[in-house]
Amino acid sequence: ALWRRDLDTVEVAEVTLRGAEARLAEAEAEGDEAEVKLQTALAEQARRNLRKVEDWRSGAVTISLYVWQLGQIFFVAAPGEPYSWLQTEVRRRCSDDIDVIVMSNTNGSLSQGYMLPTPAPAPNSYQHKIAVVGDGGLEMAVDAAVAQINEWVYG
Asked: Has residue 100 got a pLDDT over 90?
């Protein structure tokens, strides 16, 4: 299980979504195309945030990172968006004769967002706003994947 950052409550997420939808409707009524684009994006972020907090409202979050072996090839399936650093770092930390394929946005990860590195992006960044896994989750995922691969290769 990876560390989970604090999430909004469902109530806060619902209020945020209603406000975003109201601002979008206002921009549409005024015919301001640039503002409509901005408010459409913000409303979509609010919708995703609401889905995320509804999915994770229990407070217990387990992120599934799958590693499996097929012959001499190892596959790592990561939820959400772990940045390309996950694949480059897993490959760097494995022996040159080990082939690793890393896949992201797997394992039913529609609402898991980014896996944040340390240091994480600014708290007001898009990546931080949609992340479920807290700062350092990316490094924890790399450690877990490499540990499993090394266990299978070296016993």
From this structure: yes
pLDDT classification of 109: cutoffs 50, 70, 90 = low
CA distance 16 to 14: 5
Mean pLDDT to the nearest integer, 11-36 = 95
Checking if the pLDDT of 138 tops 90, the result is no
CA contacts within 13 A on the Cβ side of 10: 7
Give me the chain's average pLDDT, please: 84
The rounded distance, in Å, linking the Cα atoms of 106 and 130 is 16
Distances (CA, A) of 86 to 5, 21, 46, 102, 104: 19, 35, 27, 8, 9
Beta strands in 59-150 (DSSP E): 66-70, 73-77, 99-103
Cα–chain center distance at 11: 22
Please give the backbone phi and psi of residue 3, each rounded to the nearest 5 degrees, phi first: -65, 140
Token pair 């950052």 in the structure block, residue? 5
